[in-house]
Amino acid sequence: xxxxxxxxxxxxxxxxxxxxxxxxxxxxxxxxxxxxxxxxxxxxxxxxxxxxxxxxxxxxxxxxxxxxxxxxxxxxxxxxxxxxxxxxxxxxxxxxxxxxxxxxxxxxxxxxxxxxxxxxxxxxxxxxxxxxxxxxxxxxxxxxxxxxxxxxxxxxxxxxxxxxxxxxxxxxxxxxxxxxxxxxxxxxxxxxxxxxxxxxxxxxxxxxxxxxxxxxxxxxxxxxxxxxxxxxxxxxxxxxxxxxxxxxxxxxxxxxxxxxxxxxxxxxxxxxxxxxxxxxxxxxxxxxxxxxxxxxxxxxxxxxxxxxxxxxxxxxxxxxxxxxxxxxxxxxxxxxxxxxxxxxxxxxxxxxxxxxxxxxxxxxxxxxxxxxxxxxxxxxxxxxxxxxxxxxxxxxxxxxxxxxxxxxxxxxxxxxxxxxxxxxxxxxxxxxxxxxxxxxxxxxxxxxxxxxxxxxxxxxxxxxxxxxxxxxxxxxxxxxxxxxxxxxxxxxxxxxxxxxxxxxxxxxxxxxxxxxxxxxxxxxxxxxxxxxxxxxxxx
Length: 539
Prior knowledge:
Layout: H1 2-9, H2 14-27, E1 40-41, E2 60-62, E3 67-70, E4 73-76, H3 90-98, H4 107-120, H5 132-147, H6 151-156, H7 158-176, H8 185-201, E5 202-203, H9 207-225, H10 237-253, H11 259-273, E6 304-308, E7 313-317, E8 323-327, E9 347-351, E10 354-357, H12 369-375, E11 383-385, E12 393-394, E13 398-399, E14 405-412, E15 418-424, E16 436-444, E17 448-456, E18 462-468, E19 474-479, E20 482-487, E21 490-497, E22 501-509, E23 517-527, E24 532-538
Antiparallel strand pairs: 1-5, 2-3, 3-4, 6-7, 7-8, 8-9, 9-10, 11-18, 12-13, 14-15, 15-16, 16-17, 17-24, 18-23, 19-20, 20-21, 21-24, 22-23
Helix pairs in contact: 3-5, 4-7, 5-7, 5-8, 7-8, 8-9, 8-10, 10-11
C-alpha cells in the first residue's frame, strides 16, 4: 500500500502537492462568498456569436416537474428544483449543475431555472454546485445561452439581467480562489475557459483581471495539453471532443489577439478528431470514453492509413466502411492519469461500417468492481500474464506504477493498409520474470488482418488474451482454432495458431454510462514457453 501510494504521488507536480494541502485546509474553513459588486452585462448586442449546443441539451425531460436524465439515470427533482440531487451519484449531480440542459429550454423557463439556482443553491462547503468543475461549466453555459438564445429576454428584463450578472460575478470570483491546480489537465482548462468567457460577458470591477487570468491559463494549458499531432494529451476520444468543443466555444468570444491562437488549436484538434471516429459516427472507446457525453466531430478523415504518433494512435480507414485504430501510446500524462485504462496494444475495428471489435467503454466513475474492471487489461483487446495489469490501477482514478511503450516500426502500405510493431514494459517486473509483450499488426483492407503477439521473460507464465466483439456479432466454431463470424450480414474467418486453449465467453460492454450489455469474447491462453501466438482475420 505504501509503495503503491509512493508510485502514485511521485509523478505529481509540486503545484499539485502544494494545492492538495491548501484545499484540505480550505475544506475545514467556513464558506464565505466574496462581496457582491456592481457587475453588469457587458454587450447586449452580439448576434454574430454562434455556439454548438452541448450533448446534454436534451437532458431536461420535463422542466415543470424537474425531471432530468443524466448519464443514463432519470430523477425527478420537483419544483422548485431540489439542487442537492436527492442523493444521486456525484457525476449525476455534477451534470445537473453543469446546466448544459438549459439549451433545451425556452428563455422563460431558462430564466426560471437560473433564478431558482440563484435563490436556492446558496454557497456552502457541501454544495456540489460551488465545486470548481461544475461551477466552471455552468458559467460557460449561462454566459453562452444568455448571449445568444436568451439575449432578447435578457435585454428586456433589467431586473433579471442584474441578478444574473451579480450571480455570475460571484461565481467567477469564487472560482478564481478555487482553481484546480491540484488536478490540472482538463479541469484547470475548464476553470480558465470559464474565467475567459465570464470576462467577456461581464463588465465591472475586477473583470478585466479575471479575463486576463483566464486567457493566460488557457494559452499555457492548450500549449501543454494539445499534442503535436493534435490529440488531447489525456488520450481519451471523449475528452478530446470536449476540449475541441471548448476551444470552439472560446473562439466565438475571442477578441483581437485571441482568435488566431484559438483557431490554430481548433484546426489541430479537429484534424486529429477525424481519426477517432468509427464509420457509425461515434468515437473509439479508448481510456475513459462513452457515447453521448460530448458532441463528436461531424466529419471523418479521408481514406487511407493514418498516424497520431505523439498520442500513439495508428490505423486505417477505407471507403467501404472498414476502420481500424490501434493504441500504442502512453496511458496519459504522468501527473494526471485519472482517465487512463490499461489498453496498450489494444485495438478497435469496424467491418463494412459495423463495429466488430471494441474496447469495453465506461459505465461509471464510482470506485468499485465495475470501475476496476473497465480500466483493467482484461477489458481490452490485448494480453496479460496470470492476472497482471499493465499499470497499477486503483480506486476510481488512481494509477501507481505505469508502463512505457515503444513503437518499433510503422509502415503504411500503398493500398491503405499498414504494419505496426510495438511493445511495452507493463510486466517488466520480478513477479513476472521481467516479461515483455510485443505485438505486430499487419492490416490489408482488401482482405486480412494478422496479429502476432510475442512473449518473453525469465519465467514460464500463462498468458491470456481477449478479443471483445460487438454484441451483434455472431461467432461459430468451425474446428479447433478456426471460427466463422457474421458482422452486419458480412462474413469473415478467424484462425489461431500457437494458443493452448480458445474459448467463447461473454464480456460486459458499456458504450454509455450506466449501461452494461453482453457481448461475445474470444479468450485465448498460451505459455511464455510457446513464445508467440498468431491470429488472422480473413474476408
